[in-house]
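Archive transcription. Copying these from loose printouts into the bound notebook so they stop getting lost. Printout 1 of 2:
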Amino acid sequence: MKKPSISRVDIDDEKFGSLQKSPLGRVGGGALDFEEFFENGTLALHIIGPDGTILHANKAELDLMGYSAEEYFGRRIADFYVDRQSINDILARLTRGEKIDKYPARLRAKDGSIKHVEITSSGQFQQGQFVNSRCFTVDVTELTRARQDLTQKDDQFQQILDSLPVAVYTTDSHGRINYFNRAAAEFAGREPEIGKDEWCVTFRLFTADGQRLPHAECPMAIALRENRPVRNVEAIAQRPDGTFFPFLPFPTPIRDANGNLVGAVNTLVDLSDRKRIEDAGQHLSAIVESSFDAIVSKNLDGVITSWNRGAERLFGYSADEAIGESVTLLIPEDHQDEEPRIMERIRRGERVESFETVRQRKDGSRIPVSLTISPVRNAAGRIVGASKIARDVSAARESEHRIRMLMREVNHRVKNQYSVILSMIRETNKRSENPDDFERQVRERIMALARSHDLLVSADWKGATILELLMAQVKPFGDEDRIAVSGPPFTLTPNAVQYLGIAFHELATNSAKYGVLSANKGEISVAWEVDETPSGKRIRLTWNETDGPMVQSIANSGFGTVVLKRVTPQAVSGTGDLQYGPNGVVWTLEAPMAYVEASIFNEDIA
């Protein structure tokens, strides 16, 4: 394709029109040889036709894109734009007669590399028709990359600040906060307002001695006002929730390359931990002194160096009598071999976990104790002694009998659980139509039993209230709010918890299938009352469903019916009645309180 002559293209752009008048624009006294100027100029140039076809490009353009003239001329300029939308916008604006000035774009060179450029262009018109456009292309790839690198570094720097566990914030030269990290917001207990809050991120400030400190007089304000870092000025901050905490600020001015103040950065160090450590030292002394356990320190030679009141009570020696003496005065003759083994482990830095042994009082009597011994290190980390805690385990020994009794009781209860589970499996198996149905029903009933068991475990097998038991069994069905509960509070016996829990599960399951819990209407009332009778107190508990869908009823021979009419009532020496109204189930349990209430339950009855 024959390239158009640059000298024949009408160049009247104001940026280059002055060249016609320049002395440099005269060659041999003739007109400026534009073709020679642009062909060999360092500024990349291409000319496109009205359809976007490249009519001409100078050497700088070809070098930029890596193409020869034969490869470049005649192709559509849009083929080289990474973002098609950009060239479409440029061509549309040129067609409308607009000038393009430093339009940012990305071009793909022959080697596949991306060139970041700025396009300056204007269209040429003849008789109102767009005929061509000359486009000057400035390669700003390096500048763009430098900007990207700078932006990336800024992002990385901000990420570092954001991730710091230490509170950091910055202000402009007027003290207005323009950045804070998450730690600063958590430190202050509030979200500072960028561009509005001044000097400090904290809610209120006080001096170290508790005097109110205006924000305009805080260390950050002083650093900006006097253009100097401020150090070693402790303060107390108050959070919006009313809590106070001591801190140490490190405000430091920020200056530009010319040394002018442009802002400040402040790092806030919470001194709460340090203060707590200082207080802990005092508290520790008080705790050691007031501990009921004997706490004794000794050096590596076994000489007692500290002796608390607990040691006085346990061993009978006063501090004056014990400190400075060998710890062996507490060890009976037949246990003297323990101390060398203990000290050998202490020297290795090992902690001697709790073990039981025998020690000797001042009066010569022997006492069973539990000992825990830990190495004591100095500030340099070197082991200089040991700390020993001795606890009187006489009471623990005495409780072993009670523990054995408890184990027998646990064994009895576990057997009861097995009996209940076997009964559930047997009755469910009789009435299940298929293995999957059997597995589901058994699983649900065992889970119901487990929920009752969890209540007992959490209460150390002392029992649970009717409300707690009812809510635990109804919770899987998700409609606890639709159940009204009323009755005097008391604690059920463990036995009553297990069997009444099974009954509540069967009632809730039936209700979820056929009754109130299966629809968005109706309600369930669970009420109980305790009456005095000649034979003693009796409870009457009623589960009553009203205004629900028509009840299909539990099958007369179903496991649920067996539980509600026989199993649960017999377990508490009571009676059960199950009725089906047109819109709900009514189950009533009557039983002696002696078999139901834990506080008056007679273990002989069980």
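Printout 2 of 2:
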Amino acid sequence: MSESFSAVPLPGPGLLGKLMAAVRPEFRVDVFIPAQGELIFGLGSCLVPGCPRQPRTRRLCRGHYYRWQRRGGPDMEAFIADPGPGPVGRTELTACAIAGCRYGAARQGLCVRHHGFWERAGEPEKKNWIAGLPAVADSGHRVCRLSFCTLWAQGKSPFCHNHKSRWYAVGSPDIEEFTRRCEAAGDDRFDFRPLEAKRQLKLELQYALQCRHDERQVNTHSQAVAPVIRLAASGSAGSLLEWPMEQWSEFFASVRGASHDQNGQLAFLRYAHEHLEDLACGSGWETEFPRDVWVLRRLGMEETGARLRFDRIAQPWLREPAKRFVRWRLSIGRSVNQAVVDILALNRFSGFLADLHVAASDLAAVDRKVLERYLADLATDPRSTRTRSRDISSLNAFFHAVRRHGWDETLPASAAYYPDDFPRPDKRLPRALAEQVMAQVEQPANLDRWHNPEGRLVTLVLMRCGLRVGDACNIAFDCIVRDTDGAAYLRYLNRKMKREALVPIDEEVEGEITAQQRRVLQRWPAVGGCSRPRG
């Protein structure tokens, strides 16, 4: 079992209770059918107008694709213009042959009522008998409950004769549930019935589906979830957390094939496993700090899915202060990237300390002599000078923090690096563009070579305002401010300095930004100040 999994509590009554409290009633069903138009769970509709089924191949549903193939693969527009009968289950059902009667045909082309009249009349020649009957007037008959059916409801049933028979055939389920299933478009449904014998596993996958719905970030359709449900039902585990993700991946490969990860099936399984770990372990530093692999999402950093791995630091006496060091660095506002750099530096230092020629047993053994030996090893490292300097800087910050905060009083005072210890940086070529190149870029004719106005605007902002590319591409919609004298400024977020900044702009840049704002509002009228137009 992997170390990243070892700190996860084993599934049990505690997790089941959390699942019962977390999974909402609309997801705790045998067959979950998304609401009409719920894009997060759908693939859109078939290209054929009026067909509600999900596309499978060439943007056609399975039925229309097979029909297109049987016709020899004609031009797609010609096929869509004449696709043939509607999808099974959505075609108009046969009504009674009597004029004006909208009851469903039940026997020999007649509804139950008129067939009884015909029998009592001695079963005369049907065509003449039908012609002699007056048309039936519609005196406020109820229509079948299903929206796509126009036949009259049969007796006290909410359905027409045909759909009433179908309702009986499937075991007379709840009326609302049956209606929902019939109204569902094609394959747009998530069937959890294979997990009926595994109550907790069923709740776990329902919880994962609910999380995908609430996050509204990744399109999740039944093609991705249904194989995972069948896979979980076929295994011996009663909970996803009984096996580490590595074991589930191996089981997936053995059942589905090593390269059979179509439509994000394994990705959904991994997603479900991670979110169950989150639910089981909780969030915050109290639960995450003891673990050797930190999931930053559990620490409130929702914008990143990164993990910080301390399990590669072999020495426990080094790993504990390393975790305190990284937690402190994150707490004072250092970036996640910096934390990754620090951990990588400590990983390499840990590997050096594990060498038999060093064999340090605690921080008390990490003195200046050991650090000089490590410097000699770094000098032969093929990585760039900048990367090696970054390692030395991270280690120096670590040693300083250990002494400053009293995390280990045994660390020798000589454990430090000095400016002279850093490798001399390589000479770099000038980063600025040559003046003649800039003159060419600034020419209006060259700027007009952009195939879209957004790219032209970003280029103009980069040249006139001196922004970084990332900052320029993330300018907010309402980005122009004015001072008391009416002068225009561009307001943007300097992500490196983590603060807002203002830079003066001329009339040309202001005009281009205003034009871009108009284009955004024309495309997304309701967006307004919430938009962040991209270059």
